Amino acid sequence: MRQKVSCNTTINRELINEAKSLNIKLSEVFESALLLEVKAKKRDIWLKENFKAIKEHNQKILTQGTFSEKIGQFDD
User: Fold this and answer.
1) Looking at the 3D structure of the chain, how many domains does it have?
2) Nearest CA to 29 among 43, 13, 11, 3?
3) pLDDT in tens, 41-60
4) Reported pTM
5) 10: left (phi over 0), alpha (psi -120 to 50) or beta
6) Residue 74 region, left (φ>0) first, then alpha (ψ -120 to 50), else beta?
7) Is residue 31 part of a domain?
C-alpha cells in the first residue's frame, strides 16, 4: 500500500459542510480527482513532446500506407 501524507488546502466552507453532511470521504474524492488530473496532465505533456513524431508518422501512413497494406490480406 502506498504511504499517505497529509496536505493543507482551502475549499469553500459551504461545500465542505455539505459534503460532510452527505458522508462523502473527502480524502478519497480528492485523491481520485487528483489522480485523474495528473494522468490528463501527463498525457498532454506526452502529446506535446511527441507531436512532431506523431504528425510525421501519420503523414508517412497517408503516403506509404501501413505494413499490412503492402503484404496483402488473408483470404477467409
Assistant:
1) 1
2) 11
3) 999 999 999 999 999 999 99
4) 0.69
5) beta
6) beta
7) yes
